[in-house]
Amino acid sequence: MQAEGVTVAETLLDVERNYPGVRDYLVDERGSLRKHVNIFIGEALVRDRAALSDPVTEDAEVFVFQALSGG
Amino acid sequence: MAGSMLAVGTRKGLLLFAQQRSWKLVRECHIGVPVPYAAVDPRSGTLWASLDHGHWGQKLQRSTNMGVDWQELPAPKYPEDATLREDKPATLRYLWVIGFGGAEQPGRIYIGTEPGGLFVSDDGGESCRLVEGLWNHPSRPGHWMGGGRDEAGIHSIVVDPRDPRHIMVGISCAGVFESFDDCQTWAPRNKGLKAAFLPDPTVDIGHDPHLLVGCAGSPDVLWQQNHCGIFRSVDGAKNWQAVHEEQGPANFGFAIAVDDQNADTAWVVPATSDEVRVAVDRALCVCRTDDAGRSWKTFRQGLPQSDCYDFAFRHALDVGADNVAFGTATGSLYHSADRGETWQCLGDHLPPIYSVRFAAGE
After folding, report:
1. pLDDT tens digit at each of 362 positions of chain B
2. Does B89 sit within 8 Å of A21, measured CB to CB?
3. How much of chain A is in helix, strand and coil states, percent to nearest 5?
4. Is residue A71 part of a domain?
């Protein structure tokens, strides 16, 4: 999907506008990335899991993965 | 018809059993997702489930056709200024129990959560708000602590059938709290309990009521399976009396159920002790009292009596008329049609079972 934003947090807010409710699956009520979710910008894992302030450049690809966990 | 279905919340989804000629697993829902609690709202017949996604967080779901279709509702959110100790932000960790308001409050839903927040909805779960009066109780920062979960959690909600503005909750660890004014103000109700894990076992706040239940027919009678035994109150939780066996199995455990009309009759599923949470002597039993806890009968017929490590989590026992059912931490589900005296296994290779609740059939 296409989304706009200069940070990961802003990008997720844009995704939320088109898919209401999806953001709650990825971040908690403080906007922090859930413990067992990983987001990559290109091949780089986001560094700021608390506020998702990592910059997203134009045409960047952002990937959301379930982390490996559980039993 | 009471007792014709069982909603079984497990580590791997919600399983629905129905009593036809025999009990059968008839539907699986949210398969693969832990379901800490599921129950049917007796006012509407709506099936509710809390989901504990390993990746995607806590979710609240409801179904108006007994699990065929589901609707996800907004999960409770702690307000921005809600903090745990030392200004650590409070965020939702677990939806431990779902409770239902009085008959004259059709949209009233309660949700007990970790880290210690009670949430209430008046529109059938479309939106909910933190009960500030309880969250802001002055005892919370210094005297509430984790018990069963890392942070304090609300696992029991008892609404007075005579007056739905009168509510009690069970908090681990804090104890029993009561409100007479529709959740505005709260006071602890733990007199007579024992907290052997604290420097002062008779403190007002800091107790671990594994489960609090009330008798619908005698609402002033309450029971709790506590971390430190079984306790009963006959005066609306103002005073608690220990009613467990000192030597027999009816002592430590998590689950407790009381008869809907006879406040002297209650059931527990014992485990060995707080340090050893397995079946007593590796033989599973259910204990029932018919005389308000003065004596307990132990029933074993139909339950494994050797090499057994089962015990029941706090929400995994329920009673509906003469039917009793419980599930175990090792994935066995049992049903009794004679008030717990003999048992039939409905499945012994199920996922770990978190909650068992009877419901009317489809």
Report:
1. 444 899 999 999 999 999 988 999 999 999 999 999 999 999 999 999 999 998 999 999 999 999 999 999 999 999 999 999 777 899 999 999 999 999 999 999 999 999 999 999 999 999 999 999 999 999 999 999 998 899 999 999 999 999 999 999 999 999 999 999 999 999 999 999 999 999 999 999 999 999 999 999 999 999 999 999 999 999 999 999 999 999 999 999 999 999 999 999 999 999 999 999 999 999 999 999 999 999 999 999 999 999 999 999 999 999 998 999 999 999 999 999 999 999 999 999 999 999 999 998 76
2. no
3. 20, 25, 55
4. no
Strand partners, B63: B47
In a domain, A2, yes or no: no
Using omega within 30 degrees of 0 as the cis cutoff, is the peptide bond preceding B141 cis?
Answer: no
Q: Report yes or no: B200 and B190 within 8 Å, Cβ to Cβ.
A: no
DSSP designation for A32: P
Q: Which two tokens stand for residue B223?
A: 């029971």
Q: Which of A24, A30, A38 to mutate to test the interface with B (most CBs of B within 10 A)?
A: A24
Domain annotation covers residue A19: yes
> Structural domain tally of chain A?
1
Contacts of A26 in chain B (CB under 8 A): 56
Please name the residue of chain A whose CA is at the shortest distance from the CA of residue B53: A25
- The residue of chain A with its CA nearest to that of B79 is A29
Beta-carbon pairs below 8 A across chains A and B = 34
Q: What predicted TM-score, i.e. pTM, was given to this entire model? A: 0.95
d(CA B286, CA B272): 13
A14: domain range?
A: 8-66
Nearest beta carbon to residue A70 from set B54, B74, B77: B54
Measured between CB atoms, does A45 come within 8 Å of chain B? no
Residue A29 lies in a domain: yes
CB of A28 less than 8 A from some CB of B: yes
